[in-house]
Task: structure prediction
Amino acid sequence: MDPEDLPKLVSMRMPYGKYQGRLIADLPGAYLAWFARKGFPKGELGRLL
Result:
């Protein structure tokens, strides 16, 4: 992860799904583990997750 991504990580909100609207930095570990198993989204969102 690039240092420039840190401000995005604490300000960007999840755009969809069960945790829509929640800050990416506040997503539960189990949800991130689910993405790791199923595949992260493409683009910036996937990189930040």
Observations:
- The chain has one domain: 5-48.
- The chain has a mean pLDDT of 92.
- The chain is about 45% helix and 0% strand.
- Residues 2 and 32 are 19 Å apart (CA to CA).
